[in-house]
Amino acid sequence: MHVHLEKSATRRRWLRQVLWGAAGLPLLGALGAMLRKIQTRQVPSSVAIPMDVAEGLSILGPALVHRDPDGSIRAFSAQCTHLGCHLDRVADGEGVCPCHGSRFHADGSVAKGPANRPLEALKVEPDKATGGWIARVRA
Questions:
Q1: What is the pLDDT of residues 90-120, one digit of tens each?
Q2: Are 97 and 80 in contact, with CB atoms under 8 Å apart?
Q3: 0.85 cut: is pTM over it?
């Protein structure tokens, strides 16, 4: 009788593990598809930067923009290099990713992980029509 109970408990444990594993597979597949979709988002070919953009760091749609005190402009993709989330704010002079907390310096380098690669630099050109700038993905 005692041996029969142990076999029954072992079977139940095995069956529970199989069921949890079967339920988890679709969830893992959906998570993988979501991450692939996030990672494949691309920065638009150009981002308009107004002439009155504030000094320091700003997020302008898909771009993280830095205006130096001398007025020069640098721009980077606002897509986090960890899993592709969009940086959503500037805090303490750093661009912040809302997904896992990665932070980036004004030069696009990583200030805090989990990201371990710098942001993609964008080419900045003057926009004669508006007096501002246009940031473009480098070819």
A1: 999 999 999 889 999 999 999 998 999 999 9
A2: yes
A3: no
